[in-house]
C-alpha cells in the first residue's frame, strides 16, 4: 500500500472558541493509524464561508484523504456542503432516504419541521451517501481529482457510527488495507523523554518497521511501538523483538504496557510482597491516596491517610514534635521523615509515605514555590527522604509530587523486594 497523506478538518466556531474539544479528530486519527494510514494535518475552521473554502482548497492540494466533520446541519452557519462545492462544482440534490429520515424524526416527536431542515438531506450529485441511522444528516464520500473526501456529522456518536459502519470498510477496500498493524505502548517512569531518546537514539534514528514514537506525559514517558506485517502474528513478533531490545537498555525504568497505570503497578507490587501502606499528606491534600484507592482492590494494601495541612495538625494529629517544627519548619527533611514514621506507626502499616512542601504561588518558610520533600519509611530498617524542586503552577507542583511519590515507591519496591528480572 502506498503512503496515504490524510488530513482531518473540524468545522465549527465552537471548536475555535474552546467551547468544546475536538475529540473527533483524536478518535479518527486513532482509527486511521490502526490501519496504517498516516494523518499529516489536523485543522479547525470556523463557520465562515470564505475561510472554509480556503481550508478545503489547501487540503485538496496537499492531501490524499480528507475527512471533514461538522457543518452538515440545517442552519445558516452550517456551510460545509456549499464551501466544498466551490471545489467540486457538483449539483446538490436531496437524498430521498435521508429526507424521509428527517421527516420521520419530526413526525415521531409531534413537531413541525421547518423548511430549512430539508438542507440536511442535501448531498453531492456524485457522492456515495452514508445513511445516518444515529441522526439525520447523512455522511458522504466524494472523489475529486484524485483526492478522497469524507464528510461526517460533528456529533461524536453519529460520526463514530458512520466511520465504523461505512467509512472504514470503504477505506479498507479503496486503499487495499491488507497489511496487519500491531501497536504496543511501553510505559517508563524515572527517566526523562530526552534521556530516553538519547539511550535509544540508534534504534529511533534507524527505525523503519517497526517504528518507535516517544510520548511524554506529566512525570513519565511512553514509547508507542508500531509494526506492519502480513499477519498479526508476524507484526506481533516484530514488536516483541524490538521491545526486548529496548528493555535491555532501559528496562529499569519500565513499569508496564498498554493502559496500565503506575498506581496499578505499585499496588500490584505491594500485593505481591504482602505489604501495606499509609500516607501523611500536606501539600498534596490527599491526592496520593485518592489516586491509589481509585484502583479496584486497593483496600488490601492501603490502610488510609492523614491530611495534616497546618503545623498544628501535624503536631496534634500526626505527632510531629513541636520542637522539631520550631527548629526545622514543616517544609523540611526532618518534618517529612517524622511524618512518614508517625503515619506508619499510627496505622501499623509496613510503609509510611509523606509529602510536605510549597505548592505556591508564594514562598513559605523561606522555601521557594515548587520545593517538595517526600519521605518513605519501610518497616523499621529502610528510610528515604528526597528533596525536589518542581517547576510550574500550583496544580502542576501537586501533581508532580504525587507522581514522584509513586515513582519512588515503584523503584524502591522493585529494587529491594522483587527478583531482578529485566524490565519488570
From TrEMBL:
InterPro entries in alphabetical order: CinA, CinA-like_C, CinA_C, CinA_KH, Competence-induced_CinA, MoaB/Mog-like_dom_sf, MoaB/Mog_dom
Pfam families: CinA, CinA_KH, MoCF_biosynth
Domain of life: Bacteria
Annotated signal sequence range: none
Residue span, MoaB/Mog domain: 7-173
NCBIfam families per UniProt: cinA_nterm (TIGR00200), molyb_syn (TIGR00177), PncC_domain (TIGR00199), PRK00549.1 (NF001813)
Family: Belongs to the CinA family.
UniProt protein name: Putative competence-damage inducible protein
Amino acid at each position: 500500500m502506498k503512503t496515504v497523506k490524510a488530513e482531518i478538518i473540524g468545522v465549527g466556531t465552537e471548536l475555535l472558541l474552546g467551547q468544546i474539544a475536538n475529540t473527533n479528530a483524536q478518535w479518527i486519527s486513532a482509527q486511521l493509524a490502526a490501519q496504517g494510514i498516516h494523518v499529516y494535518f489536523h485543522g479547525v475552521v470556523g463557520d465562515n464561508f470564505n475561510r472554509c473554502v480556503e481550508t478545503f482548497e489547501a487540503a485538496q492540494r496537499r492531501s490524499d484523504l480528507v475527512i471533514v466533520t461538522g457543518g452538515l446541519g440545517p442552519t445558516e452557519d452550517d456551510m460545509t456542503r456549499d464551501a466544498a462545492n466551490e471545489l467540486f462544482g457538483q449539483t446538490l440534490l436531496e437524498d430521498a432516504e435521508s429526507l424521509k429520515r428527517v421527516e420521520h424524526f419530526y413526525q415521531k416527536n409531534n413537531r413541525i419541521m421547518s423548511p430549512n431542515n430539508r438542507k440536511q438531506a442535501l448531498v453531492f450529485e456524485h457522492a456515495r451517501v452514508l445513511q445516518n441511522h444515529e441522526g439525520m444528516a447523512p455522511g458522504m464520500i466524494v472523489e475529486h481529482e484524485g483526492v478522497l473526501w469524507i464528510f461526517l456529522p460533528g456529533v461524536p456518536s453519529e460520526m463514530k457510527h458512520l466511520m465504523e459502519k461505512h467509512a472504514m470498510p470503504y477505506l479498507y477496500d479503496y486503499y487495499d488495507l491488507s497489511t496487519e498493524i500491531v501497536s504496543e505502548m511501553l510505559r517508563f517512569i524515572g527517566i526523562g523523554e530526552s534521556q530516553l531518546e538519547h539511550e535509544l537514539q540508534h534504534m529511533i534514528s534507524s527505525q523503519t518497521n517497526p517504528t518507535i514514537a516517544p510520548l511524554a506525559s506529566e512525570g513519565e514517558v511512553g514509547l508507542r511501538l508500531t509494526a506492519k506485517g502480513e499477519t498479526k502474528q508476524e507484526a506481533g513478533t516484530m514488536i516483541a523483538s524490538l521491545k526486548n531490545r529496548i528493555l535491555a537498555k532501559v528496562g529499569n525504568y519500565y513499569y508496564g504496557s498498554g493502559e496500565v497505570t503506575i498506581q496499578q503497578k505499585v499496588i500490584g507490587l505491594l500485593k505481591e510482597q504482602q505489604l501495606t501502606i499509609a500516607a501523611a499528606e500536606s501539600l498534596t491534600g490527599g491526592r496520593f491516596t485518592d489516586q491509589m484507592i481509585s484502583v479496584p482492590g486497593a483496600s488490601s494494601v492501603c490502610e488510609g491517610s492523614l491530611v495534616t495541612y497546618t503545623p498544628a495538625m501535624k503536631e496534634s494529629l500526626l505527632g510531629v514534635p513541636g520542637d522539631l517544627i520550631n527548629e526545622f519548619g514543616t517544609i523540611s527533611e526532618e518534618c517529612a521523615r517524622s511524618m512518614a514514621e508517625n503515619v506508619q506507626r499510627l496505622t501499623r502499616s509496613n510503609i509510611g509515605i509523606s509529602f510536605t512542601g510549597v505548592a505556591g504561588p508564594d514562598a513559605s518558610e523561606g522555601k521557594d514555590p515548587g520545593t517538595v520533600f517526600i519521605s518513605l519509611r519501610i518497616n523499621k530498617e529502610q528510610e528515604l527522604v528526597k528533596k525536589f524542586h518542581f517547576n510550574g503552577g500550583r496544580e502542576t507542583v501537586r501533581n508532580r509530587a504525587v507522581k514522584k511519590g509513586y515513582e519512588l515507591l515503584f523503584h524502591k519496591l522493585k529494587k529491594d523486594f522483587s527478583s531482578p528480572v529485566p524490565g519488570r
